Amino acid sequence: MQEEANMPNDRNTIGGEPSGHWQDVPSHGESYRDDPQRHDLTPQRGQDNANLIYILYLVNIAVPFLGLVGVIMAYSARATAAPDLRSHYDNQIRIFWLTVIGYFVSVVLMFVLIGFLLAFAVFIWKIVRVATGMSLLARGQPVRNAESLSFTSE
């Protein structure tokens, strides 16, 4: 009984010291966002993930539904991302939804022929926003105006 009283309560310890492997995992109800020093993605891995989502958006032009995969990835990675990287995930989510809305409005307006021009404008807007986001990501800079409807993300 005495021995049990001296044993640490933490199951992830070896000889009373944290083992190192599980000490960085947040406990129930805690988030990586609570501590800016703790993020589950290393900066390079997170940057690769964000870049992959931008690539999925570009390939989505030829392969349907890859944009949907990209936005799901962005939503799942956003909560645990560092603030600079989070701005890219916010930008990607916004690109997805504004593109969906833009194409929906375009389809409705195709009956009066202006929809074709709007669809082309949405297509160009998406490519420019993705390219600008990729450029900022490569330079390690956050997206400053993700909420904007402008063509550039800088």
UniProtKB/TrEMBL annotation:
In this chain, composition skew of type Basic and acidic residues spans 30-42
Kindly list the residue ranges recorded as spanning the membrane. 52-75, 95-125
Region annotation (Disordered) ranges: 1-44
Q: What is this protein called?
A: DUF4870 domain-containing protein
- Give the InterPro entries listed for this entry: MamF_MmsF
Pfam family example for this protein? MamF_MmsF
Q: Which domain of life is it from?
A: Bacteria
Q: Which UniProt keywords apply?
A: Membrane, Transmembrane, Transmembrane helix
User: Where is it mostly found?
Assistant: membrane
Signal sequence coordinates: none
Report how it sits in the membrane.
Multi-pass membrane protein
Please indicate if the UniProt record lists Transmembrane as a keyword.
yes
Localization, per the record, is: Membrane
